[in-house]
From TrEMBL:
GO MF annotation terms: hydrolase activity
Record's protein name: Serine hydrolase
SUPFAM superfamilies named in the record: beta-lactamase/transpeptidase-like
UniProt key word Hydrolase: yes
Keywords: Hydrolase
Keyword Chaperone recorded: no
All residue ranges annotated as the Beta-lactamase-related domain in the record: 87-417
Gene3D superfamilies named among the record's database cross-references: DD-peptidase/beta-lactamase superfamily
Organism field: Qipengyuania oceanensis
Amino acid sequence: MAYRDFDETAFSRRALLRGSAMLGAGAAMSALPFGGAFARDSAVQWKNVRALIDSYVDTGKLANMVAVVGMGQRAPTVIAEGPLTIGQPVMADIDSLYRVYSMTKPITGMAAMMLIDQGKLGLDQPIADFLPKFANMKVQKTYDGSLTDLVPAERQITVRHLMTHTAGLGYGIIQKGPIRDAYAKAGLGAGQVSKLPIPGFGNAATNARGLAEFADRLAELPLVYQPGTHWSYSVGLDLLGRVIELAAGQKFDTFLDNAIFKPAGMTSTFFTVPKNAASRLTTNYGAMGGALLPIDPARTSIYLDTPSMPYGGSGLVSSPRDYDRFLRMLLGYGVIDGKRVMGELAVRVGTSNLLPEGVKTAGTFAQGQGFGAGGRVGIEGDQKGQYGWGGAAGTVAAVDMRRGLRASLFTQYMPSDAYPIHSAFPEAVAKDIMAMAGA
C-alpha cells in the first residue's frame, strides 16, 4: 500500500474504534523542504550540517551538538562536537543523554496508535470512557478570558483531539491571564527544568503527583477552545499518558518500556536517569545575552530524581542513538532489525494528517502543516510524508516517509527561540541532500 493511499476509515473499523458506537516546554520544528533523489551519505558530504554545528560550538554559543542523519535502515552518519558540560573533558557523542522535552510527544502518540491497532483504544473514542470527569466540560467564552464566563462543550474530547492538540486544553507555557494562573495553582506544569528557582521556568515541586491526580485536576478547569475546532499547543499528550495507562492496564512509563523501548532496542531512554547512566548526561544551559548559564547541571540534574509524573508531553531523556532507532522503526513501518514493534498501518496512520475536519494550523507552531500522532505532518509538495517535532531545549527530529530519510539534532539550551536551530537544521539537511543529489 502506498503511503498516500491508506484508508483511515478502514483502519478505524479494523481497530475497533468506538467513537460512534460507545458513546488531551516545547518548541516546533520547521518542515523539511527536501527534494530530489538521495545519494550516498557520509560525514564529509553533510557539509552544511557540519558547518551549522561548527558555527555554534566553535564560537561558544552552545556547549555541544550531535547530528544524526540516515537513509532507510542503514547505519546513521553522526557528527558530534563539544563537551557534555563546558570546562569538562567528556565529549558529546551518539550515546550522550539529552532532555528531549516535546520530542516525547511523538513517542506518546505512537504508543496510543499501538493500542488503537490492538482494539484497546479508539481514535475517535471519547476520553470520558476512561476518565468520566471529562464528560461535561466547560469552555471559556473568551480565549484566555474569564474563568467563570463559560459555555458547555459542544462535543466530547476524543483520543484524536489529545494527540493533535485540538482538545481545547491549555498549556501553562502558552496561555495568558487567569487560566495560566489556574494551571499553575493546580500544579499542571508543562514538565520540569531545574531544581533551581528560575523565573519563567515553573516549579516542578508543586506539580501534580501522578497522572491520575493530574487528570483529575485538569478536568476541573475550563477548556480554552471548543474541542475539535482549533489547533492549540496543550497538555493533551500528558493527559493521553493517563488514557494510555488505563487502556493498557499498566503504568504509562511501564507500557512505553515494554511496548516501544525494549522491543526497539532503545536502552537509553528514561523519565529518570539511572545512576549507571548519569555520567552520560549533558548540562542544560540558559542562553542569556550571548552567555551560557547552567540551569540544570548534569551532576545535580532534576532528571536524576523521580519526576512528579511521567510527562507524555515533555518528560523523556534520550540518547541520539536511541531516538534515531525510534525514527528508524517508523521508517521501517514498525519494523527495526527484523523485529516488528508496531503494526504497519498504525505507523501509516500515526504519521498522517489526523486533524479534525476544518481545523487549520495558520499562525501556530504547526504553520501550514497537518498534525499526526504527536508530531507535525507535511501535507503537500516536497513536505508531504514528513513527520516530526522539536524539543524545548533545542532538539529536533523528523522522518521523511516518502524518501526514506531520518534526521535529528541534539543540543541543550533554553529558551529554544534564543537560536533558530529548529529551522536552521532542517534547512542545512535539505541543502546537503540537494547537493548530494546533484553530485
